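User: Here's a structure from my thesis project, written as structure tokens. My advisor, Dr. K., wants to see whether a designed sequence matches the one we expressed. Can you design one independently, without my sequence as a hint?
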């Protein structure tokens, strides 16, 4: 898997185990599902769902901060 070990946030790493979960989580989140509903739909715990969302948001905050620095 090319994405193995790819850093996405301070404590968030994409690896072989979770690479398939991430697109599904954000697709369901965009469709308005709750963290619990997403976990049930993907057969993962709500804590895992929250972990992926938090990691992605942390990365987005870093990106936006870097962009604001150059504006």
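Assistant: Designed independently from the structure alone:
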């Amino acid at each position: 898997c090319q994405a193995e070990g790819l850093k996405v946030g301070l404590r968030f790493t994409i690896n072989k185990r979770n690479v398939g979960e991430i697109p599904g989580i954000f697709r369901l989140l965009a469709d308005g599902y709750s963290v619990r509903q997403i976990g049930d739909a993907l057969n993962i715990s709500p804590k895992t769902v929250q972990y992926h969302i938090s990691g992605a948001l942390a990365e987005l905050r870093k990106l936006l901060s870097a962009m604001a620095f150059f504006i």
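When you compare it with your expressed construct, this may help: The helical segments are 21-30, 35-42, 46-70.
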